[in-house]
Specification:
Distance between the termini: 68 Å
CATH topology: minor pseudopilin epsh fold
Structural class: alpha+beta
Helix content: 25-40%
CATH superfamily: minor pseudopilin epsh domain
Largest sheet: 5 strands, antiparallel
Length: about 160
Amino acid sequence: MKGSHANGFTLIEVLVVITIVGVMAGVATFAFGNLDGRWLQSEAGRLRQVLNHAVDTALMDQTNLKWTYQAEHKRYRFEILDREGEWQPAPGAAFEAHQFERAVEVDLEQPGQPFDRDDAALYFSASGEYSPFRLALKQGDNTWVLSGDGINTVVPGEAARQ
C-alpha cells in the first residue's frame, strides 16, 4: 500500500507535549504556591510600618496614641488621647481602622500583662516610648512575628511555620 499514512501522533510528539504541560504546571505551582503566606507577610509588613509611624507621630506631635485589636471585627485601629483624657479615633490615613481580609489569629505578649484577646492594646507615649511587646500574626501554618522593646523601632521576627 503505497502512499497510505496512518493518522495520529507519534510517541515522541506525545512525550514532548506531556513534558511541556508538566513544566508549565510546575511553574504555575511555584508562582502561585503559598499565597496565604505571602498575604500574611504583607499584612505583617504593613502593621510594622504603621506601628513605627505611631512611635514617630507620638513623639513628633507630643501626643499619646493607642493601638487596639478587635478580634470580633478582625481589625485594628489607632486612637489618640484628647485634651479631656478621652480616646478618640486617630486622624490620618495611616491610622484608619484596618480590617483583615482573611481570618487571622493575633497573639499579643506584653511583659507583666496577661493577654486578653478582646482587649489587646499597645500604648505610644509623647516621650517616644511604647509598650514593649511581641505580636504574632497567625494564619493556618504561617506565623509572622513583630516585636518592640519599648524604645527602638518595631522589628520583624523570624517567619515561622508550625
